[in-house]
Write a structure and sequence with these properties.
This protein has a six-stranded antiparallel beta sheet with strand order 4-3-2-5-9-7, with no helix packed on it. The protein has a five-stranded antiparallel beta sheet with strand order 1-11-10-6-8, with no helix packed on it. Helices cover 42% and strands 23% of the residues. The protein folds into two domains: 2-17 and 176-316, no CATH class; 31-172, Immunoglobulin-like, CATH 2.60.40. By secondary structure, the chain is α+β, with helices and mostly antiparallel strands. Strand 10 (149-158) and strand 11 (163-172) form a beta hairpin. The protein has helices spanning 2-21, 175-196, 201-219, 223-231, 242-248, 253-267, 273-295, 299-316; strands spanning 26-29, 34-41, 46-51, 56-59, 68-76, 84-88, 102-104, 121-125, 131-139, 149-158, 163-172. Helix 6 packs parallel to helix 8.
């Protein structure tokens, strides 16, 4: 009983962390200085588009580390904050546009003598009430981490103290994480279809919990296993009868097993692995018995559970 309570508590904590840690590209600040922007790759493919009317960001394709990108944005100088403003970026110099970072699109706005388009950070003359378009060319920094990295594409500062006025940020993802996000979206669509078609609630709970577990695993850095877990979901033989539903309700324990696994990984550095590993091993034994029962009703689901069980065994070294 204590083990079940512990697993449920860990599930709630991990799910909350997952929700808090996931956010798309967005404009930061008052949202009035940088009024709109788009992000393209070097081939001209549109990756991200910000709509100022609805204040929403539409991510059409992932922004990958190491990619050359083009950021087109509009600055509206709504107030006089000192004599100069400053633009900066965390992007590296673009290989496809090596001559500089910033490219003023207006032929009438006076940027002043201190403006340096070839510098990552440059000041320019501030004139209240003016609006102009700017293009930024740069290369997204690479990272060895499989997790999404927050990149400050454009930061606008003003005043003698360098007050932050507005910012454009984006979540740069690895190819593996980008593939996971696509698969995750596809499985979410499948889940909506299952719900609308009247599939047994027990199966819906299983599908939902595995989705949540895969996101938690991906956020923890194990994108490969998170993708494999998503791939094991099979909606082709989903049960629709209430009698079959009762069989699948115990499978919800799979999420608790995954939650305990990742707490084990997080606590390993604290030297507290032994107790939690014993808990996980007990849960795996329960899963083995459940797999045998399910195999008599649905071989496809049995195969998926067997795959999950094997991955859990590898994670704890069984």
């Amino acid at each position: 009983m204590k083990n079940k309570i512990l697993a449920l508590s860990l599930l709630i904590i991990l799910t909350t962390m997952m929700i808090m840690s996931f956010s798309p590209a967005k404009a930061v600040g008052e949202g009035q200085w940088i009024t709109t922007y788009t992000i393209e790759d070097s081939s001209g493919q549109l990756l991200v588009q910000y709509d100022p009317i609805t204040n929403t960001t539409n991510t059409l394709a992932p922004v990958l580390p190491g990619a050359d990108i083009k950021v087109t944005f509009t600055i509206n100088i709504i107030a006089q904050v000192g004599d100069t403003l400053r633009l900066s970026t965390s992007l590296q110099k673009s290989t496809s546009h090596p001559s500089g970072y910033w490219d003023l699109q207006s032929t009438t706005y006076d940027m002043g003598t201190n403006y340096n388009p070839a510098s990552q950070s440059t000041t320019f003359q501030s004139t209240a009430g003016e609006t102009f378009d700017m293009v930024l060319y740069g290369k997204v920094p690479t990272s060895v981490s499989p997790l999404a990295q927050t990149i400050n594409l454009v930061s606008l500062y003003g005043g003698s103290g360098g007050t932050a006025l507005d910012q454009i940020t984006v979540q740069a993802t690895s190819p593996g994480l980008a593939n996971f996000n696509v698969l995750y979206s596809q499985q979410e669509t499948k889940l909506k279809g299952l719900i609308s078609s009247g599939v047994a609630q027990g199966y819906i709970d299983i599908f939902t919990n595995v989705l949540n577990a895969s996101r938690t695993i991906a956020n923890a850095g194990d994108v490969k296993d998170a993708t494999a877990l998503l791939s094991s979901l099979n909606a082709s033989n989903a049960p629709v009868t209430s009698a079959t539903e009762m069989l699948f309700i115990p499978v919800i324990a799979v999420l608790a097993v995954v939650a305990v696994i990742f707490v084990v990984l997080f606590l390993r550095i604290r030297g507290k692995i032994s107790y939690f590993q014993l808990v996980v091993e007990d849960q795996i034994k329960d899963l083995e018995g459940l797999t045998i029962r399910v195999s008599k009703i649905d071989r496809a689901m049995s195969s998926s559970l067997e795959s999950v069980k094997d991955r859990l065994k590898r994670l704890v070294g069984m």
